[in-house]
Amino acid sequence: MTLPPSQRLWVGMLVVLVVVVVVELPGALQKCIFDEVQAQVRVVGAAPIDPDSPPRLRALTGQVHRSEQQTAHPGLKASALQAVNQRNTLEELAPPTAASPQPIRIRTWIPRESASLSEAEKDRLDAAVKEAVRMVSSLLSVDKVPGPLLLSRDINKYCKFLWRNSSTINYNRCGRANNNYRSETCLDVTIPDDHLAGCDVYPEADSPRKTVLRPEGAGLPDTDFLLYLHIQATDKCRAETNVLAYAVHCRMDTHGRPVAGVVVICRERLTGATYSHQTTVQTVIHELFHTLGFSKDLFHTWRDCSSSSQAGVGCSPRGKVTHTDGSGQMRIYTPSVISALQKHLASTDPELGGPLENLDVPPGGVSSHWESRLLQGSIMAAVLGDSTTVRIDLVTLAALQDTGWYAVNLSRAQSLVWGDGEGAMFGSVSTCQNNSSTFFCTGSGLGCHYLHLHKGECQTDQYLEKCRVYKPLKNGSECWKKENARQSAEEDWSGEIFGFDSRCFFSSLNRQSHFLLSSSSAEGRCYRHRCTGPNRYQIQVSGSEWVDCPAGGSIQIKGYQGLVFCPDRKLCLYADITPPSDDVNTSPASNTSDPFETLPSDQDGTWSSLRPPTEFTVATVLCFTAAVCLLAAVMVSYRKCCSYRVRIHTVPEDHSDL
Predict the structure, then answer these.
(1) Would strands 547-549 and 536-540 be described as parallel, antiparallel, or unpaired?
(2) Distance (Å) of CA 436 to CA 422, 432, 441, 442, 505
(3) CB neighbours of 462 closer than 8 A, spacing ≥ 6?
(4) CB neighbours of 406 closer than 8 A, spacing ≥ 6?
(5) Residues with Cβ < 8 Å from 6, sequence gap 6 or more?
(6) pLDDT for 608
(7) Which is the catalytic residue, given 131, 184, 216, 287?
(8) What CA–CA distance (Å, rounded) separates 344 from 340?
(9) Whether the predicted pLDDT of 156 surpasses 70
């Protein structure tokens, strides 16, 4: 049905109003609090081997150490070049043999302190945790823990004093028990005695006579890492209402590898219509990577295994791995990380270490997250966006390989589109505002998120340090959701098509027969696309045939005024950049090219209508337009005054930053 011109004008005005309202509903910006929480936890490391201990208990009885924060070091270039010389290329994981590292066996355990869950919540949690554990186990391999895993006890808790005379046979052993000793904890979790090694007291300095203070527990069979999954409405969850989860590591083995940790999942986040399976999966993976070694408190314990045939065996300490580059950016300089950054940015610059977040970090301090300006979209960035944009990237896997504790399957890394091939200066504050890269934007207009799955608005946040990027809109921004067509009043006149194969394009298209007061500038709009080769594709708009869209160029469409601009090196290059095939709020985000989709799992999980007037005078039109503009200005002011920031690891499914 064709509307008369006067009614089309009303529709046009309403479109402007709708666009204003949608833009002014940005999602919450969420922040990871791992470093804050980890600093409050005592980490128990392995004590020297006791020759009198049973073989499977050797190197398990523990002593406490507190990791010290790393500081800046002026000798950047020498350190970076040394790392490059140690290993110039990324190493792929060889097929496992009987004697080689095997996929890490992660056992999840819900402590009795956890809140009770409904059956639906149990099913949600069980599905998300199992998928996260399966993914991590497909990426990381370790030398198996022989026999059951037993965690160390904190000698500084159960012991009142140690024998300190090195000439006595009980040197460094406990001489007197602490009568107030009750239990071992990890964050807010009480570790069951059955998971702990025993402990003894030697009342005489030179006598082998001992008293068993606590007997040895049974341990956990077939386990290389024990994850306590604590579901609770903690003070941190209540104080910061958008925190989804947080984590710590608390026990290590003789090689410094973490063998136990806690992930706290805020109880309320498992309920309600906003729950997202894929967001929860990504959150658990993010937290697991922290507890497994991606932690500033563990950077200085990473090991160099370049001369070893097996991860964790015959390795030497790497020492300090974090240094500042020439611009003051703190980076990780280890061989695989440097090689991964050089490969990603297509640069041989030796200063391209892994960039670490500098927000809320003191000068010379270190963060446990990648810098958002340089590694947006990475699973270990400080802020995670919409779940369809988060990637388990090569740089993160390279860092886990350089811990020296794991053999890492680097071939399973997901494509990180952000900054791909952009050179060594990409992401610097000094260059992000000069329009030298299509990944950044200026102003505050509407456009396309860099993966072109969503429409977006040009915005900044505290992590971007005044750099601006197109962030997905809160409502109806997904081009790949067919139901969004019902929400788009633009579809009739701009030719938009929503659906699984639709992507976002900058476009100024307008039907030639359509009378509408609208801007001729290009905005993000959704059109169908199909690949015809690497970086080659065709597009289709409403009522048109398929038309070649030359990457980096622009095209006209018959029956329309304006242009469609064709992004270069963003479409038809990355086979694993596709929208989820199912509703992301109820099922895993997956696609046929997802390398994790079909992996088997043997891990233990836990369970009345407006009627416009028929005629308008010019004065009426101008007054109405002025009113809309005023409303838009008010909304912008409101956003600036009332915007807020929340702290968390991942975002609920409202297309926002973490």
Answers:
(1) antiparallel
(2) 10, 7, 10, 11, 19
(3) 29, 359, 645
(4) 101, 104, 140, 141, 142, 292, 293, 311, 312, 400
(5) 612, 613, 614, 615, 616
(6) 29
(7) 287
(8) 6
(9) yes
Measured between alpha carbons, how far is 442 from 435 in angstroms, rounded to an integer? 8
Write out pLDDT tens, residues 367-402: 999 999 999 999 999 888 889 999 999 999 999 999
Task: Give the distance from CA 542 to its chain's centroid.
Answer: 36
Residues in the chain: 658
Domain boundaries defined on the chain? 429-565
475 burial type by CB count under 10 A (0-12 exposed, 13-18 middle, 19+ buried) = middle
Measured between alpha carbons, how far is 285 from 135 in angstroms, rounded to an integer? 8
User: Coil, strand or helix: which one is 507?
Assistant: strand
Strand 316-317 relative to strand 322-324: parallel, antiparallel, unpaired? unpaired
Could you confirm whether 287 is annotated as catalytic? yes
What would the mean pLDDT of 232-252 be, rounded to a whole number? 90
What's the CA gap between 136 and 288, in Å, rounded?
Answer: 8
End-to-end CA distance of the chain: 44
The pLDDT of 49-78, averaged and rounded, is: 41
Distances (CA, A) of 609 to 1, 205, 315, 484: 17, 91, 74, 21
Q: What's the pLDDT tens digit per position in 452-479?
A: 999 999 999 989 999 999 999 988 899 9
